[in-house]
Amino acid sequence: MLSQISPSLMSKISYYSSFPSNGVSLRQMVEFGKNPNQGTMLRATQFLSDELPIRLAKRVIELNNLPFGLNKMPSILRVKHWYAESFQELIEFPKIEIAGYIRDKYRNSFMNGKAYYTQFDASDTQYLPVDTGSYIQDFTNLISAIKRRHDPTMISMAWGIIEWKNKDKDNQVNKEIQIFLDRFYLSRIGIRVLIGQQVALQSQPPQKDYVGIICTNTNLGDIAKEAAENARYICQEHFAIFDAPKVEIVCPPGLSILYLPSHLHHMIFELLKNSLRAVVEFHGLEKEEYPPIKLIIAEGKEDITIKISDEGGGIPRSGLPLIFTYLYTTANIQFDENSFQFNEFNAPMAGFGYGLPISRLYARYFGGDLAVISMEGYGTDAYLHLSRLSDSKEPLP
Ligand SMILES: Nc1ncnc2c1ncn2[C@@H]1O[C@H](COP(=O)(O)OP(=O)(O)OP(=O)(O)O)[C@@H](O)[C@H]1O
């Protein structure tokens, strides 16, 4: 990992950060990835090698400018260095400069399977044809490694904020920090979708109904069922109860949508985890049978809406403005840094305070939204809206 960001790297970062990002829509990704031949994959590679450094650079600048001393927290510095390092690797990756041709020095290094860090010097003017297949593969390997590097970003950022809150009791996640985190995580979702899509198109054999990581026929009932099973299992383990509240699913048969199944699963799973926890805590551990959670999926022309209703006692009105705040939780769990080693798609029952805000970002990323309405003393309804049109471009910070 970079121990510090050199002034020359920082000036490149700030130069790149001044360019606008280019958003893509779900439909564009599907159209583009339908026929992943070498020509399209090369164009995707070129798009990503222009686009990813801009997105990463913007985040480094924002992390640098975080207020109230947050930018000095070790875990946040660590994240900033990951971003800077990935940025550096991407801009050092050689570009195909004239259709199909690359500068010879780079070509030699990549033909030897070595890293691409050779600096171009003025005498090096010869261009040679490039082996497009290995070029695309090497770029895909690079971004795949970058994605892995950033796996613990969410955990590290959250831990950084906890460090900062513990430093001074007046340090609280205010609106400014909340807006920063929303932008930061939204951008992260976008970067990971773009990388995930390229890696899947390049390395996975074609699979029915799939274009990369996007499923053109995501069956909502099936995903809801799987998320319910997973959430109930975690609930049973966590509360050591024999039978978690049931989840009754009502879904028009065969209803499917163009979507990312992993995102959909994540959102429904998080909402169900909240409902299950509320029901068990509200009715007590000794209860033989709990009121079921109802998950209703409705199909409209614009949206598909998933409503999750529980009888878990609801949320007091004073608490409602807080539930989408990062690190706001009513779960009473003490964390140390080791507790933060879990994978973001494998969260514990509760306690991180990230479930709702991150799920809302996942929904918004593809033009949807998430709203929560509570009846204190009775229960909570969560409405997850998914846009059917798939044309909305990524909302880019
Ligand atoms: N269905 C619900 N019924 C009652 N309270 C809820 C419900 N959903 C959310 N809440 C409240 O909102 C808070 C924040 O929820 P959120 O999902 O963001 O975090 P969490 O569940 O506490 O932790 P995690 O990051 O593990 O999801 C919860 O701690 C809980 O107090």
TrEMBL record:
Which catalytic reaction applies to this protein?
A: L-seryl-[pyruvate dehydrogenase E1 alpha subunit] + ATP = O-phospho-L-seryl-[pyruvate dehydrogenase E1 alpha subunit] + ADP + H(+)
Q: Which residues form the Histidine kinase domain?
A: 261-390
Question: Which cellular component terms (GO) are annotated to the entry?
Answer: mitochondrial matrix
- Tagged with keyword ATP-binding: yes
Query: Subcellular location, in the record's words?
Result: Mitochondrion matrix
One Gene Ontology biological process: regulation of glucose metabolic process
Q: Which Gene3D superfamilies match?
A: Alpha-ketoacid/pyruvate dehydrogenase kinase, N-terminal domain, Histidine kinase-like ATPase, C-terminal domain
Q: Name one GO molecular function term.
A: pyruvate dehydrogenase (acetyl-transferring) kinase activity
Entry's PROSITE patterns? HIS_KIN
Report the enzyme's class at the first EC level: transferase
Q: Which UniProt keywords apply?
A: ATP-binding, Kinase, Mitochondrion, Nucleotide-binding, Transferase
EC assignment: the record states: 2.7.11.-
Q: Which family does it belong to?
A: Belongs to the PDK/BCKDK protein kinase family.
Q: Which PANTHER family match?
A: [PYRUVATE DEHYDROGENASE (ACETYL-TRANSFERRING)] KINASE, MITOCHONDRIAL, PYRUVATE DEHYDROGENASE KINASE
Q: What is the protein's name according to its record? A: Protein-serine/threonine kinase
- Species this chain originates from: Rozella allomycis (strain CSF55)
